[in-house]
Amino acid sequence: MPQVSVRNRLVEHAEDVFRRKGFGGASIQDITQAANVPKGSFYNHFDSKQDLAVEIILRHARTIDLSTLEADGSALERLHEHLIARLEHIRASGIEFGCLLGNFASESITAGERVRAAVHDVLVSWAGSVSVTIAEGQTAGEITTDRPASALAAFLLDWLEGATLRAKIADDHGFLTDEVGIALRALRA
Amino acid sequence: MPQVSVRNRLVEHAEDVFRRKGFGGASIQDITQAANVPKGSFYNHFDSKQDLAVEIILRHARTIDLSTLEADGSALERLHEHLIARLEHIRASGIEFGCLLGNFASESITAGERVRAAVHDVLVSWAGSVSVTIAEGQTAGEITTDRPASALAAFLLDWLEGATLRAKIADDHGFLTDEVGIALRALRA
Where does the HTH tetR-type domain lie (chains A, B) (predicted)? Predict the structure, then answer.
């Protein structure tokens, strides 16, 4: 039976390697080196780099804190807090490396169908949660009903991915907090 | 003296290869094969893959049609037309490959400093043009003056890159036209 700790070490370190080097740029050797495990041990635990990447995407999805969305009070304020918290999470892990989901999305053609589908599923699920809060804001008259809640939710996440990408190439995140306020103007009733 | 036509052929075909495979995924051989020139001829014309990528980025920047921004009439309508035209351009070259600038931005850490700087410069320059139209809309009372024109312009391009990225992984662009309208709501006075 393969050692559990080796598998855990691979999972623990792979996210950082993928964020820094991208899916294509991260070799199995980069990952086993970062995890400090023998290179040969990789295939005892994963069928392929794609297999590990899918696990990393699902693990990363669990870091998206939805509790801010589910609080009481103004929907626009909850959305604001949620987006700020997400940006803080990305900033804390190094804004110059961007968002793991966005990076994998960008490489989706070469990373293959399973990676593409995993990123897409995570974004759809996240947008679903954001959409519930938006619908509450629509009922409360705070948020426009010109568009379905789902379309407004998808817009917010599209903006977030694009803004994170710019912060990555500008190596500057000073603009992000203010830009949350601009994006949310689009939702106002 | 190196043949001009070989250089032209490399430039002509490299954009497509970079869009399909990304900077890291596109090998010199992929590029020379697509251009139908001998592999060895590459280094007669370019010092490195990075060198060619910078030329491709600057060439791509010239496809951003600014004429729609400079027309007469409502600033919001001109911005709408400009964003739609840009999305059409990306759609026409295969939405599943995303935006060349966005793809290079995502790979900026591994593609290196010159590629990162070239993408950044193109986006800053493009945002500058968008910003002029926004400032006109602010003067006309159509667009909010809560934020500087430059911040609103940067927001629009961030949204555009994020939306293109989602269209790429969803392999669907049906939502894009409507989402231009949502993004522009953020600018309304």
Answer: 4-64
